[in-house]
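Thanks for the sequence, V.! I ran Capsule synthesis protein CapA domain-containing protein right away. Repeating your input here for the record:
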Amino acid sequence: MSVAHRLRIAVAGQSLIRRDPFALDNPEAQAVANIIRGCDAAFTNFEGCIAGSYGGWPTKDKAAHGVAPAMLDSLARFGFTHLSLANNHAGDLGPNGILSTLAETAARGFTTAGTGPTLTAATAAASGRGVALVAMDAGPWDASVYASDGQDGRGARPGCNRLGVSRRLGVPPALLADMAAYAEAVGHAQRLATRVAVGFQTPPPPGCIDFFGQVLQPAETATELWHVAPDDLARQETAIAAAKASGALVIASVHTHHWPADWHEPGPWLPPLAERLIAAGADMVLGHGAPVLQRLAIIAGQPVFFGLGNFLFHSQRASVRPHPAIWRSLLGCLTFEAGRLTQIEVHALRLGGGTDPASQDFPRLWTGPEAEAFLATWVATASLPGDTKIEGADGRLTLHLP
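Predicted structure:
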């Protein structure tokens, strides 16, 4: 089996949905849906979980996004076919919500990946319309959010496909010695040694110290050092390679809240990860998590959207409304011919926010000088082949790849 001669795939930001944009006649939302439906397949990250037949209880005191099954009908009406389910809201109703979401998305014919009743199921690729999806969450969350196959007499646990990403702090030697002395002086080092001795905690890596839960290691200058768990990465690579071997076009979806101070930039560990996923067989890498648009890069001929921002953002936090970057995004339409990326078409989107009523928080096509400036700024940050041709205006750009 081989990739279809020509595939056009729509890619969008995260869909955190609590209200139906189509509850009333809505030609603006329908115009966006028409573009999505003109593609062979369409992807979004469903940022939530379904309050369905498996029940469940809120696992958070705020920003818990358990929603009615009918919200999935809205995503279907937009034209989405492929959903990543791996994110920080997947477990908002616990394992029960994971199972309800799987049941309700399956009943509607979505192709989903990133969660499952076991870790093996959550890692596996899902395929539909010639497009396979492998979706993962890179945290940082408690272990209870993540799926498990069960071991040592424990049963399996429904949850997300985990890609462990952790941070160590590089500390100059003199400062590191002072911090180690402080941990010793207040008894932290002794408490840690006791817990390690009885197997309640693992020791820090050789040469490092545990400073009240943060791993520190010697470095010439103050720095952050990021580490992707090798076993988790190997699982993703195996799933991607298997999907690629089936002849499908492969999407690798990565959700994370390990954000730098500048949310418009990907974390420093993400570009090297994208290279690994592409080397394993991914035809595109799509990032989600940060609620703002991040840059595009073409790596080994494949598109990497480090962060697609938002598509639907029905946040319960009123504090997000005044921030324009959260309410501006894009819809991408990617064309592959015989498995090779040839074109990226992007449409600027306005999503609501600001002083608009919450009922107006839905995507609509954005045109005019501000939209042109928005896309021009975004494409100027992209890492593209030198002979890429860019054309378009008024809220729409087309990138022709060599």
